[in-house]
Design a protein that fits this description.
single chain, mainly alpha, 9 helices, elongated
Length: about 220
């Protein structure tokens, strides 16, 4: 065993450890974001009695939580496939999960416009993180077909729709043109989107892992 380690190249050693290092970084950042959210819940949010406004706050809390957990699903499961020397883009990609922190700050406030604005920002930067992640993954020939996961109509369609949708709601809310029931319904789209993104991503990820030969030609043809 010792002889095997001594014979291993430096590049091979780094590549072998990259996946676990990346997963650790992502998990720490996700834990930081969730800790920030739950601290805000305890310190300043009103959750009862149940009204349209407190219902909106509950939806925001679940939306933030499920959004960051859905991001962890993407980061972790794509990270498991990596076996290469990292670049600075891997760090930038992981740090983008911190956009949830200003979203947390806008949660539970009387005015909903700020939360909708940052939800749109999360959707946009979430798409950016996905594209960086898949672009970096495609550096490995065996994973060259992964970028198709970011297509419109794929697992991240909710993020594509969330950018203009949440921005429109931010404007309507800021101008006081959105009734409370509409704000509640639009906010409820957050947790629903977090669940659906994770489910659809896992379905396609499993197909790629379990039958990579069948997936690669279809992406090349698309």
């Amino acid at each position: 065993m010792a002889g095997s380690n001594m014979g291993e190249s430096l590049e091979g050693r780094v590549s072998r450890q990259f996946s676990s290092l990346y997963l650790t970084l992502v998990s720490v950042l996700v834990g930081l974001v969730l800790s920030d959210l739950f601290s805000a819940v305890h310190e300043r949010m009103t959750l009862w009695p149940l009204t349209l406004e407190t219902g909106r706050t509950w939806c925001q809390i679940f939306g933030n939580t499920l959004a960051v957990l859905s991001a962890w699903v993407t980061y972790s499961h794509l990270g498991l496939l990596r076996h290469r020397v990292p670049t600075i883009w891997d760090t930038v990609d992981a740090l983008l999960v911190l956009v949830t922190v200003p979203l947390n700050a806008a949660t539970g406030t009387h005015e909903a416009a700020a939360w909708f604005f940052w939800a749109a920002g999360y959707s946009l930067l979430g798409l950016t993180a996905v594209h960086i992640n898949l672009w970096q993954s495609a550096r490995e020939p065996a994973l060259a077909h992964l970028p198709r996961l970011a297509r419109f109509g794929g697992p991240y369609t909710f993020l594509y729709l969330g950018v203009p949708g949440f921005l429109a709601m931010a404007l309507l809310s800021y101008l006081h043109l959105a009734p409370p029931l509409l704000e509640l319904a639009a906010t409820a789209a957050g947790p629903a989107g977090g669940v659906l993104v994770a489910i659809f991503f896992m379905r396609e990820w499993r197909k790629i892992v379990l039958n990579p030969a069948a997936e690669a030609p279809s992406s090349a043809g698309g």
